[in-house]
Design brief:
370 residues, alpha/beta, Rossmann fold, 2 domains, Glycosyltransferase_grp1, Glyco_trans_1, Glycosyltransferase family 4 protein
């Protein structure tokens, strides 16, 4: 198939440091190419890919001090996509909603994966207006706030099996990886670690919007606790060591997390996850196998007393069974092919031919058919 992957421009593909969406786009793109598909990636010019790269800005916008407004760059990228849309069997967007108005005439050849939260009050009317756009969710829970829309399936994220190697033994510290923000709960992670009497390492980025939260809630607590080490943003190589050597990953979120990529990154290393029961956590973490799901700080502290009973080999096997890039790619290809089948049916109908009912199947992902 000839496939376009359209990535956000905030980070390169793959990102140098933090960037979950762009990392998933990279993994999917490389696997599609490996399987023999003709893929064109629309992304920042500093991206690295075996697909054909269409550079839509020189460098990732978040790390470019001269890029003050991301909208013009994304609009220019979407115009490039629109002009070349007829070249592709499928166009796969990872931009949330910005492209919706321009794809009306070829929407039946597109799929949009929604990577973010969907419970914000401004979104319901927008999605109701564009209820024909083909969408994919990254968890079932992500869909709950949405009005009726055109869901094609739910596709869980996946990682290359060898990118984060299995680590059979831990080094006795807890890990927190992600963003410094209220919904991610870094201050809660510090409280859990302190009450459990365990050292904690925090590897996270601080966005400008969260600077006051860092200054008021996180940094003072960090300075009071000598067992907490703040590392900052880390790259993929550092991530393997950081997660692989941890006794457990703390995931004390306080929001409807649509997926939680860091949880399966930890699982790939064999590191179990202690996660609050929010959002997609029950779909991703196999309670008692790849981690322990808790409701409170008290339960998280108690879970740390039991975490040593989880077999790191079984944690890795849970990852291999459910969250590899091969499985993710297979799920998306099934959706791509369903779009192609629907296209052939529409052409046949317009030309006076009737398609057999049993040739039409619902798009099925790894977890949900709709």
């Amino acid at each position: 198939m000839k496939i376009a992957q359209i990535a956000p421009l905030m980070e390169s593909v793959p990102p140098r440091l933090y960037g979950g969406t762009e990392r998933i786009v990279s993994y999917l793109t490389e696997e599609l190419v490996r399987q023999g598909h003709d893929v064109m990636l629309f992304a920042s010019g500093d991206s690295s890919t075996s697909a054909e790269l269409v550079a839509c800005c020189d460098t990732a916008l978040r790390l470019n001090p001269n890029a003050h407004n991301h909208i013009p760059y994304h609009v220019m990228m979407l115009e490039r996509v629109r002009r070349r849309a007829d070249e592709f069997d499928v166009l796969h967007f990872h931009l949330d909603v910005l492209h919706f108005p321009i794809i009306r005439e070829f929407a039946q050849r597109t799929v949009t994966t929604l990577h973010g939260r969907l419970d914000l009050p401004d979104l319901a009317q927008l999605y109701a207006m564009f209820d024909d756009i083909p969408l994919v969710s990254i968890s079932n829970d992500q869909r709950r706030p949405m009005p009726p829309v055109n869901w094609l399936g739910t596709v869980y994220h996946g990682l290359p099996p060898d990118i984060l190697p299995f680590q059979p033994k831990a080094s006795g510290y807890l890990a927190f990886l992600g963003r410094i923000s209220p919904e991610k709960g870094p201050e809660v992670a510090m409280e859990i670690a302190a009450r459990a009497g365990m050292p904690l390492k925090i590897a996270a980025k601080i966005d400008a919007v969260d600077q006051s939260f860092w200054s008021e809630k996180v940094e003072p607590q960090l300075l009071r606790n000598s067992k907490v080490e703040f590392i900052g943003e880390i790259d993929e190589r550092q991530k393997a060591e950081f997660l692989g050597n941890a006794t457990a990953l703390l995931f004390p979120i306080d929001w409807p997390e649509p997926f939680g990529l860091v949880t399966i990154e930890a699982m790939a290393c064999g590191t179990p996850v202690i996660a609050f029961n929010r959002g997609a956590v029950p779909e991703v973490v196999d309670d008692g196998v790849s981690g322990l799901i808790v409701e409170s700080v008290d339960e998280a502290v108690e879970a740390l007393r039991r975490i040593g009973g989880l077999d790191r080999v079984r944690v890795r096997k849970a990852f291999e069974k459910r969250f590899t890039v091969e499985r993710m790619c297979s799920d998306y290809l099934e959706i791509y092919h369903s779009l192609a089948r629907d296209q052939r049916f529409s052409l046949g109908s317009r030309n006076g031919f009737a398609a057999k009912a049993d040739t039409l199947t619902s798009p099925v992902s790894g977890v949900l058919a709709v």
